[in-house]
Amino acid sequence: MRVIRILGGTLVTALCLFIGFLLYLMVTDFQPEPVEVIPIWGTGNSLSPSKTEFSFLSWNVGYCGLGSGMDFFYEGGKRVRPEINEFKNYLGGVIHTLSGMDSVDFIFLQEADLHSKRSYFTNEVEEVSKCLPGYCSLFAKNYDTRFVPVPLTDPMGRVISGIASFNRFKPQKAERIDFGTRFPWPKQLVFLKRCFMVMRFKLGDGKDLVVINTHNSTFDKGGMLRKPELQKLHTFMMTEYARGNYVICGGDWNNNPRGFDPGYIHSGDRVKTVDPPLDTTFIPGWRFLFDPTMPTNRDVDMPYRKSETQTTIIDFFVVSPNIDVRMVKTISNRFAFSDHQPVYVKVHLNQKGI
């Protein structure tokens, strides 16, 4: 009887602790508004009304914790975070790469940490800002949880992360727009609240340049979350274009772009496709900008090994029909500092229309 009482008491204690933990996560749950104004740090330059050419770079930096030597438990690997020296190497590589991009007009980052155990509580947005003097910086939080309890033997713990933009020009307005997509409860308590960032710039012809940084969902079987996210982007972007504005959206879409063909990649990597494919009704007539010859993302079920690790293209830009394309290039670094590679584009605003 004593053993039964001890076991019963242990189970009750464990249940109480579990319920208490759930209540703690519920009370501290990050609940963003549908639309929030984003503060703008730094100065940036004034945008010349006559400027018509712009350059962009998009890079999911994987919180500077998913470089070539890293695998990740959530995607079939074993590790939770890199060792401190590995992290410093990945962070230093990201900083060095971006410091050489100081002529790019707009730099979009995804998975930039502010205060997370997985990145040794480093403010990565601040670190990037230091290497881009003269740029203004913006941050839209999409992940804020007090404690991620998995894996049980070495929990991820505290996470504050999001998407960040660094611009040579200061926008008139910047907003965080929530996708409104959530995983079922209670998983949503420790997962991301996805969003996209919108920045507006007034042009000389009276129209706006609408610049969007996005990071769409993954780990959603069958595109349960990605489909409504794409629909929300579709509606927003088409509305802006109907107003006569120039629209460019870039980031980590967690979807293959329209026109993606694994056979075009000649990097020597294994290549996979992402299901489900983009719906044909998504943003018809717009251009998808990506380098078809080079992967932008790798699986993290193992450290990166060329010809063994599966790769694909999920980082790209989409531009409205009144924007002409000058250059598209994936900057290959063999996934040295992140599980993604940066994508660079240069575009021209066609002020004569389509």
Explain what the structure shows.
- The protein has helices spanning 2-27, 84-99, 124-131, 226-242, and strands at 35-37, 53-60, 106-113, 136-148, 157-167, 173-178, 195-202, 208-215, 246-252, 270-271, 287-289, 297-298, 310-312, 315-319, 323-330, 343-349.
- With 354 residues, it is α+β, with helices and mostly antiparallel strands.
- The protein has two domains: 1-30; 33-349, Endonuclease/exonuclease/phosphatase (Deoxyribonuclease I, Chain A, 4-Layer Sandwich).
- The protein has a seven-stranded mixed beta sheet, with helices on one face.
- Strand 8 (208-215), helix 4 (226-242) and strand 9 form a beta-alpha-beta unit.
- The protein is globular and about 85 Å long.
What number of structural domains do the residues give? 2
Q: How much strand content do the residues show?
A: 25-35%
Low-confidence stretches: none
**What series of H and E elements makes up the topology?**
HEEHEHEEEEEHEEEEEEEE
- The oligomeric state is single chain
The CATH superfamily label of the largest domain reads: Endonuclease/exonuclease/phosphatase
Give the N-to-C terminal Cα separation: 83 Å
Question: What value does the average pLDDT take?
Answer: 94
Structural class: alpha+beta
Question: Overall 3D geometry?
Answer: globular
Count of individual helical segments:
4
How many beta-strand segments?
16
CATH topology of the largest domain: Deoxyribonuclease I, Chain A
Query: What is the CATH architecture descriptor of the largest domain?
Result: 4-Layer Sandwich
Strand neighbour order, sheet with most strands: 1-6-7-8-9-14-11
Please give the share of residues in helix.
10-25%
- Please give the largest β-sheet: 7 strands, mixed
Gyration radius over CA: 21 Å
CATH class of the largest domain: Alpha Beta
